[in-house]
Amino acid sequence: xxxxxxxxxxxxxxxxxxxxxxxxxxxxxxxxxxxxxxxxxxxxxxxxxxxxxxxxxxxxxxxxxxxxxxxxxxxxxxxxxxxxxxxxxxxxxxxxxxxxxxxxxxxxxxxxxxxxxxxxxxxxxxxxxxxxxxxxxxxxxxxxxxxxxxxxxxxxxxxxxxxxxxxxxxxxxxxxxxxxxxxxxxxxxxxxxxxxxxxxxxxxxxxxxxxxxxxxxxxxxxxxxxxxxxxxxxxxxxxxxxxxxxxxxxxxxxxxxxxxxxxxxxxxxxxxxxxxxxxxxxxxxxxxxxxxxxxxxxxxxxxxxxxxxxxxxxxxxxxxxxxxxxxxxxxxxxxxxxxxxxxxxxxxxxxxxxxxxxxxxxxxxxxxxxxxxxxxxxxxxxxxxxxxxxxxxxxxxxxxxxxxxxxxxxxxxxxxxxxxxxxxxxxxxxxxxxxxxxxxxxxxxxxxxxxxxxxxxxxxxxxxxxxxxxxxxxxxxxxxxxxxxxxxxxxxxxxxxxxxxxxxxxxxxxxxxxxxxxxxxxxxxxxxxxxxxxxxxxxxxxxxxxxxxxxxxxx
Length: 555
Prior knowledge:
mainly alpha, two-stranded antiparallel ribbon, 2 strands, 2% strand
């Protein structure tokens, strides 16, 4: 726990410095300040994620990457020294014990939760190995030929490698997801303010969902799974966007910056691809204001944020968006064969529907959906029913707002519409709950929540909302408290729980020792490099740095 706290302080320091500078740089000559201090942290985590990906293309992500990051932080402090000094003065005057105490309590609680818990199955299968490849080599051409899961590129793995501190010679820490969970908890605190309890807004309903998600993953956030990164960042994006709308923010800048964060989210997990639809609002604002240079600037920033992800995809697999083969631009000798990539894509889709047999891929929606629905737990069945019916509610609300010229509904309907698109994309691709629970839940809550806030009298709205918060709080807090007490231990007071490791069998290839599991398909982090099965000689040359050919070119 102590190690997690120290790493978190380092992450927050670097992210705040980088994020503050990034916001100032994106704002240009405009006199712009982020409305929430935590926005600088999110801007920083987005910028550092892009940096970690870029660095991994040229070198392993470890000590040198952190030294360069610190050097950039020093340059930022020098270039924006007056702005930083003014910002620190503002913080000193606005921070009170009443604000510090709940934040400190949450900080310690989430640091404790991030120090222990359940290691995700996929973490032992390939997350840990992916992160170690980045720590040891940065990137290797055709790595997906050794194990196809290693071609599942995610920006979150580069970020985890940057802050793993493996270069110190001890364990590889994996606590970034826990920090993002803490940040989201801070963003959700506002829901308990007296003002919000008396007059709830649409963003407060999203905050309640965020709290629900945090309670669900508290014992799992120790794993560096890309699902957690994507969902946690998406919750913040939606909360902040709705908050800006509720505050009637007229500047395009905060919306454009959130769109850059959306680009980063897509590089974390492609299931968030339709979040890019958010770009329509700032784009329209810029067009109306005839700010051609700013349009080009943000297009460049967005493209620059996404380009490292695409480059890593190509190097790892030979495909621009592995395992999807609809864009076929390259013919490298390390390119994963089309048939294998298509099999992988089908396996993801079938697994998301709750099946393990890839031959089930061709089943029509009417055939597989009833079985999928039957396998869902009770609460997600309710969410799915609300989400599907919410599509009709959204259409009716949109028509009513258009006919009655209710301009105040434009922004919330815009947000709800995008989340509906994300929900449908998730449902018809790979609808595994952990892949896109945020889209399912938001598609269920936003249309119905908007309807509720429009038609309910102010007094009834307060009473029903207050009762709902109390019931949800009593139920989840009680269950959470019992689980916390049942699993309480001082074992991880100093060091975080390490990756799980499994018994392996070693073999030699070109002077390197490789590993595969004695049983099952998981190896963990320690035995490196490894794959679920013994690999053939697929070296492109004599060294790992030269990469791996596909099986067909190796024969």
